[in-house]
Amino acid sequence: MPGSPVSGPRAYRQGTARSDDVPEDGVLPSSLSREDGFRTPLELPVKGKKRESRILDDSWNPLRWFHESPQDDKPGFFTAEDRAPETQEPETEGEEQGTPRIGIQRASSVPNSPVDKTKTAPKWGRLRSLIPHIASQASKASTPGPSAVTPHAVNITDELIAGGLSTLMLRMWFERDEKDHRRIPALFHRLRIRVTDSLNPLDGQKSVFRIECEYANGAIRWVVYRQLRDFFSLHTHYTVSNAYNRNVDDLPEFPKTSIPYFKFLKREDKDLGSKDFARMQRESLETYLLSLIRAVMFHPAANRLAGFLEVSALFINLAHSGGLQLKGGYLQIESTTTGGGFGRKSTTWRQRKESRWCAVRDSYIVVVEEPGELEIWDVFLLDADFDIERPKRYYRQGLKLLHPDTGEDDEVKPPSNTLHPAADNDNRSVLGSIRGSFSKLLHRRNGNGTGMDDDHSSSSGSSASSIVSQHSAPMLDPSTNVNPLSGTADQPDADRNWHPDEKKKKKRVDDVSKHTFYIVNSQMRLKLFARNQRQMKQWITALEKVKSSPYCQPNRFDSFSPIRLNVAAQWLVDGRDYFWNLSRALLLARETIYIHDWWLSPELQMRRPNKDRYRLDRLLERKAKEGVKIYVILYQEVSSRTTPTDSNYAKQRLTALHPNILVQRSPSHFQTGTFYWAHHEKMCVIDQTIAFMGGLDLCFGRWDTPQHVIIDDVDAGGEHSEIWPGKDYSNPRLSDFHTLNKPEEDMYDRTKIPRMPWHDVAMQVVGQPARDLCRHFVQRWNYLLRIKNHSRIMPFLLPPPEFKPGELTQMQLTGTCEMQICRSAGPWSLGTKKTEHSIQNAYLKAIQLSEHFVYIENQFFITSTVVNDIKVENKIGDAIVKRIIRAHHDDMPWKCCIMIPVLPGFTFPVDHSDASAIRIILECQNRTIARGPHSIFSRLRKEGIDPDEYISVFALRNWGKLRGDVLTTEQASNTITTTLCLLNALQVYIHAKVCIVDDRLAIIGSANINERSQRGDRDSELAAVIRDTDLIDGSMAGKPFKVGRFAHSLRVRLMREHLGVDVDNMEEDHLMAREAVKPEREQEKWVPDADENDGYVKEPKTKTALRAFAGTVVDGIDQGIHGSTEAGSNTASKLLRKVGLVHNSMAQSAGDNTLDAERKTYDRAGNLEEGFASSMVPTLEEKTVLEQRPPKEQADDAPVEEKLQSVPEDAAPEDAAPEKESEAADEGPKPNGETHGDASPREEGKPPQARTDDGDLFGAPADASKTAKTDDEPPHARSGVDDANEEEKAAPGARSILRRHLNAKLGSKTWTLPTARPKVDPNGFEDPICDEFWKNVWVASAAHNTEIYRKVFHAIPDDLVTTWKQYKEFVVHHERMNKPPRDNATPEAVARVPSETGDEGAIQPDSTAPGNPAGHPVNPPGPKPTPHSDDKAGDDGAASSEPDPGVNPSEKRKAGRSSTGTEPFEKWERDEMEKLLGQLNGHLVLYSNRFLEGEDVANNFLFNADRLLPLPIYD
Asked: Where is the composition biased (Basic and acidic residues) (predicted)?
């Protein structure tokens, strides 16, 4: 535009680039030719160079003012792009240049070695070589190319060797400026600047100068905008300071030619146009800055100049890590949030009032103690709740009344701070927009033509660019406007996001100040004071630009983290693989290690056996000595007796290793009011690049192999070493951890007690998700510093920046997965005002949109039900039920497979008075799955749907041999024995938290399926949602179906392990070695509709920590009322009502009516009836027997029904020879003249059905008809409704076969097992829901294994044990196994089931070893529980057999044993047991839905004391 005062960068003559002109890193000589327009302090002024404006060139683009950032638009030292050097043709002096800085090339962040595009299988080699460059990208810069900005110069190393520079650097550490601030450690002689443009903006009369800065040969580039008054203020401060202190020599004079006052020009007979004056003004100001730098660059007074250029020590320090700084300067910050505040908790009131140096970076605001220090005051993270609030200026409302003709009113203006991004103008012509804006400018009314803000008139100096104001450029100030080309200045909006509390306040000076604004995020609200309004606008503009950060956008599932594409991720099953990979990554650490765990054991061996150098504490100590900073967050238990993790010992042990290891524990229980909830996430991030997360803590008891062996008994002096040394050999079902400060000491006698295997799933990931996890860790770490006092100073941490586009691709660290980090976090755990439950949202949406198959492994399954009148609010169960109903109506094949532990990992037998945790969790899971009107089975049966066709629940068990060939397994409790045992079996404890949907999507994390983990306001959790874009051919229900490689391979790997396939010998894909299918820009993210049914949980949860604690207390009180009412005494409830803690309605709702309602189910007509759905729906084992699965072609033997059909009536007597005690039971008196159903001719030759001493059949379901002694009809004793289908009517016949098998003699050919052993094809896992695999292999194997464990060990829980009486007689079998064989001369036992009190000779746990759960707190101190008996149960078929109150059930059981019931086995029987165990297919067993069902329906399963405990602890 002719006549425009806006001039572009100077056009210097460009010479042809030569290779011998490539400079080294050094000081610029004074004879440097300014080919790129930059000038250095050591450069002599060059005269005669004509500086032409670029405004006349067609390529001039005003968008550069606010779009172009020197750090973004050019390849450089911290940019992952490599561009070939540009060769420029020689040009004549005076020719105009179309683009500035031609020929500039900045070095790359990685070595310039050829990139090998062929990927190796694992990426560890690349990670090993690339992590140092990722962690310290400034350590080595590539040599600049021929067109680099720096010519030959003195190398910085030579400067240090010479001694001059090293002396100056040493002085920087000691010197202080006049404010007693440490000198900013910047080498200003390596700073290059240029004033490229000047602009007379529409919203003011003062010219704005664009100052481009370059430091360290292009390592850092940034832009600042300054007005003339800013230059004059800088000069004034130096002049006044120098007048008093005389600390700066040769201080330059302020250039008069830069002042827009033309009288002196006329005296000198100069006639300058506006264009020439603008060029002269920029040149003189640039020269002044260079002279000023030369004067102060080796003096502490340089701090003021650094502030002018927005340079700080942190700015220099963070340059190598990437990221972007948009604004730096001083602000005074006050927190308006109650609790926590801003800054350390120990900060004084006076310190909180001081102005401090702040910087707006790409996704946060950082505040430092001093600009010359790296110590961080605090960090304000920008998130989806980030907003800027502008206070009203009440005193200006009166001024506007004096000018009614302007027609402007702040109250009716549209929000002027709703800024439109510059990208909105991309589709229109830039010059066209300028002409339009310029036309509008010319047609403005008089008096408003300049569009100026009143506050701009209070500038120092003159009237600025008054002579050119008539031809102002149609642009706004880029430093105070997000969109300078919008043509409308950003005016303060009085009503924008106005806080309700502020509206109620009276007029205050602070509120009406034009220097004040507020910023809000999910954690806090801060009040900020700027020095003037222009600076305030600059801060606000910078913050508005940062709103484009992905963390500030609404993300899928309402998560804090965005979706990441082309991620390299690998699943890791079981502790061996997880700890091995983690140890390898720890050895690669160069900068930082972040660890967040529920429990951490410093002495944990990461690799085994005999690899002590890989012990966790030694690895961390080694890296700490290398200079790696290690930050650890541990859950702080309420008491070592409730949760024996001993976090204090772990903290003291780690911090004593090296000062570089810092540990925080959380929460502060009394401060946060949090006694029940825990930090449950497990994560480790190395150098902000490699991350590990999932269900595995770095602690004892977690390391395991796919074989899940339960014995680790090594002879002293033998060749083999212990795999699980010291405390790592554990069995929480028997006794929980204790004396952790003696990690090398065993807790049990390994020759007698097996360990409990641990099954878990985790993952590792490289790239952007690792930085998302870092951000979560930093947010938690900083929050703890605000609320906790520490004896040792802990630093605030900064979140890492985003990887630059293409950076990971260039380093070949990309993969094929789409991944997002989700979490459960709330007020107590993270200090947020809102509760995030994005993990639950991910589960709900994944289940809702599933097409065929959902596979879940979890430690608990408690969802969408009502337990003791307490509603379980998480909606995962609802989503499953609705998806099943939809699949049933659409006739679509769909299945849900759930894997949970046999029993919760808590101490004590089920019937022990201290086993409240076990009973409560079982109660909750029963109410979720199959018992009560809110259970999944009951709701499906109401719709006429057979639950077994759509949802099934499984568990895992294992067995082993102790010393002396003693067989051993684990049952249900925790008693330890002293006698030598031979056989042992144990549950494989499932601790994984995995959900795999359609073999396309996987959710892996630390969140259980219960209220604690899913709600967000209780336990804090982490999870990753992974969807593989690398689709491969698969099948579902016999039809072709595309599946994702990540999810499919994980599901197959898990199922193979559970069915006993040797997965270590199976070839598996190296998922992290696969190339990305498409570039990120070509991929479409999976963002499901949040408004669909079963979608996100949108209801806000904004409870404070105090309110959350109060809610927990009310839950406990409600439980107490139930207990007191059921016990026949309502004194406690009356007292609670009297003191006002509860209302009458709450107390009245508690009682028998409420509890009876939970013991009903729906019939097929949709009416409520007495009983449980679990008793009416046939079990998977019964269905397998009825359907005679697996067929011969898929089995090693024929089903028992087929065998019976081929056996003649006069079968060999050995097949029907019952044991003596069974005969006595069968020949007992029949009540009311009835027979037991075993005497008919058709029954001859068969073993009798197993019965209790009083004739009740084992496994008779609740409400068995007609009685529990004749279980021959579908259950309807109380309801009277018999609406059973054919399958339900045939179920009693299948149960009779199972009872006969239990009573059959070992070694019987016909009655070996009711279900034949299925054949398992290692390659037959591709289609999980076809009948050939699901029914004939998976379910049949589970039923087959369950029958073996029942026959050999009488494993608990079991579907054939439905009452306490059956339970007591069932575990008498354990006593027989504990005795030596009758024909054996040695005193060794046959087998051992050490976790049940039926195992005689048990010793009680050590008094120093608290009986607590392996994951959550147990019973708080209180009265001993008393078993509850119900009067109504006397006439029912499932009458209560609970021991008398106050009597230990195990003691009464011992007293009532018959002499024949505990006779020892013979040796041949023991051999038959081991032979049966050899037929197991892996570890898979059926989960028992009918265990103690008869007691539950009689309201006799929970003890009274159980109901007094707060249910939220366990659900």
From this structure: 65-86, 493-509, 1180-1204, 1217-1254, 1266-1281
